[in-house]
Fold these 3 entries.
Entry 1:
Amino acid sequence: MQRAFHELIRAAETAAASLAKGPVTTDVAPAKVRDALARYDFKTPVPLLELVMQVTQLLQRWNVHVTHPRYFGLFNPSVTTAGVVADALAAIYNPQLASWSHAPAAQEIERLTLRWVAATLGPFDFANFTSGGAEANLTAVLAALTRRFPAWGAKGARAARGATLYITSEAHHSFSKIAAMTGLGREAVRKVRVDRDARMDPADLERQLKRDRGAFLVVGTAGTTSSGAIDPLDAVADICQKRNIWFHADAAWGGAAAAVPRLRPHLAGIERADSVTCDAHKWFSVPMGAGMFFSRHGDTVRRTFEVGTPYMPGRPEGADNPFEVTAQWSRRFIGLKLFMTIAELGEAGMIEQIDRQARVGEILREKLQAAGWRVVNRTPLPLVCFTRPRLKAVPFLREMHRRQIAWMSSVRIAGGPPVIRACVTSFRTTAQDIDAVVEALGGIASA
């Protein structure tokens, strides 16, 4: 074990020292990777030390390095050392978080951590860690169904005929999957119009709800995947409160901004949501996966997942058994990596780390505009969508990746033409990285 962990530490140090200087992306055919893996027939044992070195080489060679400072892609962050150590500790002790009595220390570490995050968002009396944002969003839909249709838990979709939920075209696509998984059907998902900044149009939401008696949930997004748009949460909250409809704020990425005093006003209204999704494995910079779900209706959530078993330990006084109040049963110690990251950085350090990425995003926006690019989105979050006349996004990105300049993606905002999408996801990204990338992009555009 000592030798294996020594090799693991060496690999981590090598990655930290060389990653920024190496390639950000890879281009390899599936067949080539499969050929390299053909040596593992699982009949011949491989010494652990050799295995660690071999897997390290595979991941180094054939991987889009999402922890690279010039990875401007999806919400995959560089990760803190504390988070990496925490994941190893969680694996070593392997606590079972289904019941409180099996892992008291782990349970209360998670409760403490969730209370800190909740304090930045609003007055939520229930919180738990999830596998990711999709599970947190699923929890919101199930809880909203339980409140709106009391027989939902017993009869399922039969008790909720005509049930509908409202999102925009810019909302996360997990809600389409959730509608199918719950038996509501994808046709139960209604789309609300967006304005020129890709934000939900409250007037259109109001118009649609007036003629829909089955509406049970409205989703407002705080930081859309495509453009970082933040829906008018206060206005959505007003409408939902008036009609007694569950208001869910999907802040999987953008929710971290609530911890930053200068950014918090942009999320005004999130504290009025009935539930909130926020992912620690995005802007809080911990390893995947670490989603979080918050709600002002703990009793409703408990009814949603209530179950009786003869073989599980009973509920302790003053605490929940997670298997009785969440979608998961057996669960890993998800919250340790966020706890250790916040504890090591301190509250001020955590806030500064989030804020610094937002400021680097502002630098990216300013540098692109100064270089003649047209920025097409407006958001206080570090996500910039940009283009130029006659720019063909796909060939442009292909050349960017070939030259190892950076990793970005293309996106269509509210059904518009493809544009380039760049999101600052790493706390290691600097103003110097931005200067180098913007200069190199100009070289591709003029070629």
Entry 2:
Amino acid sequence: MISDKKSAIQVVRKILAADFACEQSDFDKEGMTFHPAKQIEGARRFPLPEKFLAIVTMGRGVVISCSADRLRWARANLRGFAPEALFNAPAIARIEKYVSRDHQSMFGPELKYICTQDTFQPYSLCGEIELSLIQGEPIQQIYENN
């Protein structure tokens, strides 16, 4: 387990940079950076859909990663927004309209939480909840069923 928040943030930056096929420094740049989506070393092992478009920020720079066929659209249609406005209704509506042509829906924001030894507090489950750890190949099956 990572012991402090600063180290945990560094791990998150590294993984997100791999997930979005960008440089860690892109999270610190002003404005937006656009990257073709691809599976690279260090990324989480979630399958990339054929038609992919995702947006992430860590508070400053915004990274947009999408499949090659969506990259031109993203540049043409999202550059007109201020980076902080990409997560507001007009931009979300524009993206939703675009991805719905491929029978896709928007998901998010997907807020993720990181835990470090200095903030972790164990939790006892009550008898009504069952907790299961899924690893390896069964994870792929979960995504194939959605």
Entry 3:
Amino acid sequence: MGEIVKLWIKRAKGGPMDAVAEAKLVAGRGIVGNANQGGRRQVTIIDERAWADAVRDVGVEVDPSARRANILVRGLDLENSGGKILRLGSIVVRLFAETRPCELMDEMQPGLRAALKPHWRAGAYGEILEDGILRVGDRAEWV
């Protein structure tokens, strides 16, 4: 079992990542106030340990908000999690696939994109099946 470590809302595509203590997630839509709504990529999740491994490979401390994901979890390995169901607090998410690191990662820190490629270090994305309020400190577990 894991836990929610950080939450971010991206107000606009390419815009800043706002750290929040809680967020409302709506089934079939996404995070209220987030740029990504609907479709299969309603929420993006990264694992704290995988992020630390990538940062270690880069050799420079990089804040995890640079990944531009919505949720940072501790204690859950996201590698090969496509098709799995995840409970985050009271919210249920179906993960579809790996979130592939894009060229923005190297704009944040040279070498970060390559460091995120192995073992799904860049995280996973999915759709919200059951909505609710998600808070930093909530439990995260596979269903």
